[in-house]
Write a sequence for this structure.
């Protein structure tokens, strides 16, 4: 089975940093655009960022632009999200995903930012 295993979440104070990782197995990781999506408590899913298959092109939601950085290591089949200057509104479960057909999602990792 395809697996996307997200890790690195935790609890931090506002202004702090976390680095999320997502280890992928089985599918052709290096050939696909990869995405981070989050879901805040009581809210819908929010697209956060994505990165092209080779890593040369990245996109960010306005809410995280300038604070978050997405990257990937296609040798290690791992996706990253460096999150700096965290705000309480960044509190959410963060998912890594390969969108499209087929659609693969990781299990999510909780990020909690306290003020």
């Amino acid at each position: 089975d395809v697996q996307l295993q997200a890790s690195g979440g935790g609890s931090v104070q506002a202004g702090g940093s976390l680095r999320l990782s997502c280890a992928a197995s089985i599918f052709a990781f290096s050939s696909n655009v990869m995405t981070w999506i989050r879901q805040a408590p009581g809210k819908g899913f929010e697209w956060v960022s994505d990165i092209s298959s080779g890593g040369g092109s990245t996109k960010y939601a306005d809410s995280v632009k300038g604070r978050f950085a997405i990257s990937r290591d296609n040798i290690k089949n791992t996706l990253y999200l460096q999150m700096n200057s965290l705000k309480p509104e960044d509190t959410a479960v963060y998912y890594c995903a390969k969108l499209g057909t087929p659609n693969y999602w990781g299990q999510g990792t909780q990020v909690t930012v306290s003020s």
In short: Residues 103 and 113 are 29 Å apart (CA to CA).
